[in-house]
Amino acid sequence: MSLQPDQVLDVCGLPCPLPLLKAKQALSRLEVGQLLEVRATDAGSWQDFASYVELSVHEMPARDERDGVYHYWLRKGGERAS
Predict the structure, then answer these.
(1) Are 6 and 30 in contact (CB under 8 A)?
(2) Residue, of 18 and 81, whose pLDDT is higher
């Protein structure tokens, strides 16, 4: 993958909903436009991250699964317009 993250978050071994909660905390510390790579082993995280991105201002430019590890790249978005 050619995406270069600003931060990598390893949440392997954590059960749902912890991977998403930890990712949300990490995103809150990033600047708008920065990229977070999340590595998780919880299979439920595949749908959790997709649903979260649909409902948030953040983007997920890529995601994949390799050898039982799910990789998500999340780009921090700005604030929603009112």
Answers:
(1) yes
(2) 18
